[in-house]
Structures are given as C-alpha cells and as structure tokens.
Amino acid sequence: MSDIVRTHPAFPAPGGSPQPPLITATDLEVRLPEGPILLPATSARIHAGQVTALTGASGSGKTTLLRAFLGHLPPGALVTGSVDVLGKTPHLLSVDELRALRRSAVAYVGQDPGSALNPRMTVRRLVAELATDRTEERMLDVLAQCRLPVNTGIADRRPTTLSGGQQRRVALARALARRPRVLLVDEPTAGLDAEVRDEIVQLLRHLATDHHLAVVVATHDPHLVRNFAEHTVQLATKTPSAPRTQTVGHRPATAGRRTDGSGDGVAARRIDAFFRDGSLRRQVLSDVDFTAAPGSSSAVVGPSGSGKTTLLRVLAGLHPAHTGVLSLDGRPLATRVQRRMREQQRRIQLVPQNPQAALNPRHTVGQQLGRPLRLYADLPRSVRPDRVSELLTQVDLHPDCAHRYPGELSGGQRQRVSIARALAADPDMLLCDEVTSALDAETAVEIMDLLARLRVEHRMTLVVVSHEHHLVARYTDTVHLLDTGRIIDSGPAAGLLPA
User: Averaged over 95-123, what is the pLDDT?
Assistant: First the structure.
C-alpha cells in the first residue's frame, strides 16, 4: 500500500476547520482479468487548494490512478477497494453521468497535451470548444491565467506553431475553461527546459491556491515534488522487473547489412524548415548544418521551442526541409521518408517523445513490434514471437507485455515499447527525442545504459534530444546547442555541459 507523506508543512490548509477531501481512495487496486496489476492497493486523500504529487517508478500505476479518478479505465478492468470523487464512484457511473462529471467537475491533461489539440483549430476555438462561458472576454482571461501572451495574437495561432510549453498551457486553459473543481495532470514538466518547467509548476500552484482547485500531478520530477507539492502519494512497485540482460540478442537476419563504419554517416547542409499556419509560415530551422558519423553519439540541446524535435524529424524524413540537402554515407537522401528506399528507411529510425500518439491503441505490443520485423527483417514467421520477446527483454519489459495494449501500460512502459519497435528495424542510426523525460531517474539511467550498449556493440549512431543535461554529458560525445532554429555552438559534451 502507498503512503501519503506531508512534504510541505509550510503550505497549510486554509484557515478554519479542515475541509473534507474532494477525492478519497482506500486500498484502491486495478487489475486486468487474468492479467497484470495496473495499480497496486493505494490510498489517498485529495484536498481543494493543494497540489498532490503522485510519484513512483515507471509502471507503478500513477497514470492508472489518475484515470481511476476520471473513470477512464480499460474495458473489463477489475477494481477493488474504494474511490470517491466528489461523492461519486467514477467507474460505476453511467455514460451520461460520467460525461457530466468530466464536463463540470474533473478535468484531465495527459502526458502529451499537444496530441489532443486539433491542429486545424486556432487556440481561440480550442478553448471555446470546452468553455462554459464562450465570450471573448472569458476566453482571453483563461489564456492570460495560463500565462499565455494574449497581446501577441496567440489566440489566432494553431497548436503546431506553438512550443511544447505553450501547448501545455493551452491544454490547461481548455481544462480551466470548464471551471472544474479537480485538475488531474500527467507529467506536466516532461521534456521541458528548466525555465519553462518552473513556469508550468508555478502555474499549477497558482491554480491550486488562487482558484481553490484540487491539483493532482503524476510526476517523476523531484523539483516539482520538493518545491510545489503539499502532499506526496508514493506508489509501490507493482510487479518485479523483467530480468536484466547484459548482452543484446542476436540479429541473424540483418547482421550482414550492418555498415562497416567506412561510410560518412548522415549529414544535413544549410537546412531551412518551416511550420505553416494557414497562409502564414513560421521558420523553425535556419541554415542548419549537422553531421553524425557512424557509431557516434551526439546530443541536441536548447530551450523549448528552439527546433530540436524538428531537426530530428527532418533527419527521419517526417518534416520536409524546404531548402538544403540531406545525405547518407555521401549519397543523396530524400527529405521525405516516402521517397526513400526501404533500406534507407530501415537505417534511420526515430523514437518520438510521445509514444502514446505513435503507438496504435487497437494493436497489441506484439503486433506493433512485429510490423518492422515483417518490413525489414528476413525472419520466418515462426521465430518472430521469440524476437519480440527478446526485444521486450532488452528494454526491461516482461515478454508477457506482448499481449497487452498500449492503454494498459504506463507512460514509461510505452516509451520502452517505442524504443523496442525502433530497434526491431535493426537501425544504423537511432534518433531519440526526449526518451527519458517521462521516466524516473533510475529508469532513465537504465534506458541510457541500454542505448549506450547497443551503440557500442552494433556500431549504431545515436542522436539524442534532451533537456536532462547530466545524462547528455554522461552518455554523448558531441553536443550541438540549438537556439531559435540555429546551431549556435558545437563541441565535446564535457566542454559544453556540466557532468
């Protein structure tokens, strides 16, 4: 059972007699029929005007607890213990009752709020869509409360033109527009630089105190827990980890295709890239030169919105370079992945920051790992399940996860699946976009250890985008500093970043 720890006596409850909690969970456990435990027995009391942090190792059930408060559990999930949200038991409500609860009282912002923002709608329409008061004055007031610069015309922009931090603020504005009493937020600081992270957590504290909201945050961020949360709910590890592997499994079908290191690797020259917003376009990369030699380890760092993810997507062929050229081992490389040869597609694989949006919710993990095996590996169908089990073990997931769906996994577990899927193609280059941002500190080190081992044993090129500079300094050789779409400095990691 988890314990509730009062971490901040400096943040007392409002004066007068203690108010009853808005949410109470007692020995709440969630499991799948004949399957894994998604949430071990957990107790918690959530009060208005306070920030409560849910912490624990990746896969301990933090997201599942948030979803239990929201009444959004996997179909057929078995629930024991009790949960009371504003006098109701969410998972026992009818569809109409649950819809009313979410519309008027409980709001949720997921790990990747940008994926929930319709890219064709302006910020103004996105907020008005869920607002109880759709007047212009109210909409601008909500945006201002979320620290968005309303005097810059941001209300008329589309989410694809916003930085990650701004997208999170828009998602919070959409939630606040409903005037909820409870705000549930999943990993709000993942993948953000220190300045934007502090802005987000200060906003959450402001919402709790000034609006008397009960704010519940699932997080791996010790800074948030230490400085902004009154209460901490520590979730216990629910299942033993999969056995550690010190060697990477064989790759019989593709070993012969591995480059011998004599090539030039990937290179980008004078790259410009844009985001389009209707008839307008915003430049996100400007005159960028980038190279990654075979077997090297590089990092791209910079503030939120500087163009780091766009650079990776250009290299992967998922965002067009409007000017400039790409090459692989000295040969031209098409800027669009659809125009690349299958072998070129195999050699460069991207692990995105948000695995929830990248994984098909209707396919099992095994099916999703099997697809790159069908496309790129000359493996008999009979041995593919063994290769899937091997890939899962490599990323510290139990082979039984092959039979589960992404919605039955934690955010950290989904990230591991995303890495395993990229490895299934046997790539020469792995582009990793904030792959540790949703993981606890211990698991983040394990993932980076895994990537480092794969790079050395298979001479795989590694390019990492990260705000976690201590990991970058430890695991990469070269760092590129990106700011406002330009690389302003490059050099040895030890020289540019503190260890």
Answer: 89
CB 62 within 8 A of CB 69: no
Burial of 235 (0-12, 13-18, 19+ CB in 10 A): buried
Helix %, strand %, coil % of the chain (to 5): 40, 25, 35
Backbone dihedral angles phi then psi of residue 194, each to the nearest 5 degrees: -60, -40
- SS3 category, 384: helix
pLDDT at 499: 54
Cα–Cα distance for residue pair 322/440, rounded to 1 Å: 38
Reading the block at residue 309, the tokens are 């993810």
Q: Which amino acid is at 296?
A: S
Closest CA to 171 of 214, 127, 106: 127
**Confidence check: pLDDT of 43 > 70:** yes
The span from the CA of 56 to the CA of 165, in Å, is 24
- Sign of torsion, CA 465 296 351 119? positive
3-state class (DSSP) for residue 444 = helix
Neighbour-count burial for 272-308, b at 16+ CB within 10 Å, e otherwise: bbbbebeeeeeebbbebebbbebbbbbbbbbbbbbbb
Average pLDDT, the chain: 85
User: What's the chain's length in residues?
Assistant: 499
DSSP 94-152: -HHHHHHHHHHTEEEE-S-GGGGS-TTS-HHHHHHHH-SS--HHHHHHHHHHTT--GGG
**Using an 8 Å Cβ cutoff, are 148 and 166 in contact?**
yes
- With a threshold of 0.85, does the pTM exceed it? no
Q: Tell me, what amino acid is at 466? A: S
Of 108, 38, 102, nearest to 76 (Cα)? 38
- Which pLDDT score, from 0 to 100, does residue 259 have? 44
